[in-house]
Amino acid sequence: MASACPDPAALSRHSLNCESDTVSSVLGSGVRLVAGTCALVASLLLAGCGPDASDSATDEATVDYDVPDFIQTARTTRSWNPHVNCRATVTTLRRVLGTERGSLGGATFEGGGFKPGIPDRRALHPPCKVHRVPTYVQLNHARVGSCSQINDDGDWTCTLNDPRLTGPEDMRRIHIETDRKFRRRDGWSVPPGGTDIRIQGFVFWDPGHTDAGWHNHSGWEIHSFTAWRRAG
User: For residues 210 and 117, is the Cβ–Cβ distance under 8 A?
Assistant: First the structure.
């Protein structure tokens, strides 16, 4: 039989009071704890007592994504950045974005060829795969626009498009960005604007900018883009 969870309000009221009689009043008679440990015990007791805690963990563990056929047959290559150990999947911007358009005209999450992407754009060592889908890509046909440092966080951002593509502008471009952590390491530099390049980086979905024109009305980014080479 599962034991009942302690009253969260009672634990919160007494979280800074480590007298043994206080803990006893919350957990029941006969319980005695050494002073200084009750706050830790309280947090551990509550950690597993949320009504949806086990359900949400189970849901996350069972989420899965199909690996597209084009990924399974794609060529991979070594990283140009010495700090990245993943092999890059050689692909195209169209494969990253997909062809499905949202209400504002940008590429959707559901249509993305490399969804879900990395979970943390700030990670120095993002996973090479998430749910079996590669996260690290190489685009060989790309033209970089202007690049600039944004805000005060040290990140650099650029516009990028595939000059071979036709159709709506939002479906021919992607936002690329490099976290300051990568910028300060060897192996990265700012690409010159207006240049045809090849680029490597991690696919990331940012849900906070799907309504922004400067973000192509889509959450898709290459963040961090970790290295580039001139095309040819």
Answer: no
pLDDT digits (tens, 9 = 90+) for 175-200: 999 877 777 676 678 888 899 999 99
Contact criterion met (CB below 8 Å) for 165 and 93: yes
How far apart, in whole angstroms, are the C-alpha atoms of residue 76 and residue 106?
28
186: left (phi over 0), alpha (psi -120 to 50) or beta: beta
Q: Which of 11-20, 31-40, 57-66, 216-225 has the largest mean confidence?
A: 216-225
Handedness of CA 192, 198, 201, 206 (dihedral sign): positive
Handedness of CA 185, 118, 66, 198 (dihedral sign): negative
The amino acid present at 232, given as its one-letter code, is G
Domains of the chain (ranges; CATH) run 8-61 (no CATH), 65-230 (2.40.50.140)
For 71-87, how does the pLDDT look when each residue is reduced to its tens digit (9 = 90+)? 999 999 999 999 999 99
Q: Which helix (H) or strand (E) holds 105?
A: none
Question: In angstroms, rounded to a whole number, what is the distance separating the alpha carbons of residues 182 and 179?
Answer: 6
φ/ψ of 152, rounded to 5, equals -120, 15
**8 Å CB contact between 195 and 230:** yes
CA 18 to chain centre: 40
